[in-house]
Amino acid sequence: MQGYFAKLRIPACVVIFLVASGSLLADANSPDVNAPKPAQTNAAGPNAPTWDKVGVAATVNGVDITQDEVNATANPELQRLNTRTGNMPAAIVESLKKQVIERTLERLIIQQLLDGQVEKENIEVTDADVIANLRETGAQQNPPLSLQDIKALIEARGQDFEQLKQQIKTSRQMKYQKLMDAEFAGKLNFTEQDAQNYYSQNRQRFQKPELVKASHILIAPAPSDPNIDPNTDPNQAKAQAREKAEKLLKQIKSGTGDFAALAKEHSACSSAKKGGDLGFFPRGEMVPAFDKVAFSLKPGQVSDVVETRFGYHIIKVTDHQDATEMTFGQVKNDIIRQLKQDKKREIADQYVDSLKSKADIVYPPGKEPIPAAMPPLVRPRPRPK
């Protein structure tokens, strides 16, 4: 049931199965295009309290959410952001941090609203609920896992299966899931025809392009190549680089030199440490000259020296996969599962919006959120593949 409350947290040991399988939530730290809309403040209403709460970021139905709580919850994401924004202008970094704080407050507001509903409806998670969830999770794996398989995997990771079950049982997310079951009832009955319609309307999603797997050796003119004098004339440097590439090619084609070993020793590409291996790639991913040659070779063949703006390449194709299209039979179950997931997100968003509309959510003066000011760092919603 991935993503329908995408920003709330779950214990790490539970994530192994529940998040990975999509049974509860999306990654708690990954922005989601389906995140609920910012809560609306009622501070301007006739019964709005006078704000005199120092250090409180918002009050939800009389319950305070402190700024310290927001900061502590946001800290892991802020730390990750720091590692990814080292070369960005300071103003952009601060704007991104502000977005993280605002999204975190929004998640905590939603959490408080859901906690209130769990308490109001006396939601209790039973051992049977946990077992049913684990069985459903296992069934969604590829290949499917039985309850015993899950238990064995958990124990192989040095974790206690009974302790995991207890953590699941007491987690907020399981309570939220049970809370939503009544909302989902009767609304997730997608048929094979529904899946066929989706497949017919989205054939491009199920097409796999032609791929080649190749390795290369890149000899770059100075100053990129540490083996060439950086003070060399550019034209002379190019000539020296090509000459070196031709010598390496001669060794490879004569059998006196191993491609991977020569790549590790001489290539100026970061793939050198992997023997020049670039993995699989489709047409158009590499620069045109490289791309044309790579897709013209058969597995096992080695190119002549190929010039690109990066320098001189020797290309070896190691595998080739023709373009294919997955059949409806191959993806039918995935499509039905995804249609259910999308519907769950839609229902959950509507449910949260209804809670907000009835809630008393108050912000400090001047701190009310402006929806347009909180653009999420979105990622595309996953689709069946």
CATH superfamily of the largest domain: Porin chaperone SurA, peptide-binding domain
- What fold name goes in the CATH topology slot of the largest domain? Triger factor/SurA peptide-binding fold
Q: What is the alpha-carbon Rg in Å?
A: 28 Å
CATH uppermost class of the largest domain: Mainly Alpha
Structural class: alpha+beta
Provide the number of structural domains: 2
Give the helices and strands as they follow along the chain: HHEEHHHHHHHEEHHEHEEEHE
CATH architecture of the largest domain: Orthogonal Bundle
Low-confidence stretches: 1-49, 372-385
Main pleated sheet: 4 strands, antiparallel
Overall pLDDT: 83
Strand content is 5-15%
The count of β-strands is 9
Shape: extended
In which order are the strands of the major sheet placed?
A: 5-4-7-6
Looking at how many chains there are and whether they match, the oligomeric state comes to single chain
Task: Report the helical percentage.
Answer: 40-55%
Helical stretch tally: 13
Q: What is the terminal separation in angstroms?
A: 18 Å
List the helices and strands and how they pair.
Elements: H1 12-15, H2 18-21, E1 56-60, E2 63-66, H3 67-84, H4 90-120, H5 127-139, H6 147-156, H7 161-170, H8 172-184, H9 192-201, E3 207-208, E4 211-219, H10 234-254, H11 259-266, E5 277-282, H12 288-294, E6 306-308, E7 311-321, E8 324-325, H13 328-358, E9 361-362
Antiparallel strand pairs: 1-2, 1-9, 3-8, 4-5, 4-7, 6-7
Helix pairs in contact: 3-4, 4-8, 5-7, 9-13
Question: How would you characterize the overall build of this protein?
Answer:
With 385 residues, the chain is an alpha+beta fold. The chain folds into 2 domains: 234 residues, Porin chaperone SurA, peptide-binding domain (Triger factor/SurA peptide-binding fold); 113 residues, Chitinase A, domain 3, CATH 3.10.50. Helices cover 47% and strands 11% of the residues. The strands form 3 sheets. It has a 4-stranded antiparallel sheet with strand order 5-4-7-6, with helices on both faces. Strands 2-1-9 form a 3-stranded antiparallel sheet. Strands 3-8 form a two-stranded antiparallel ribbon.
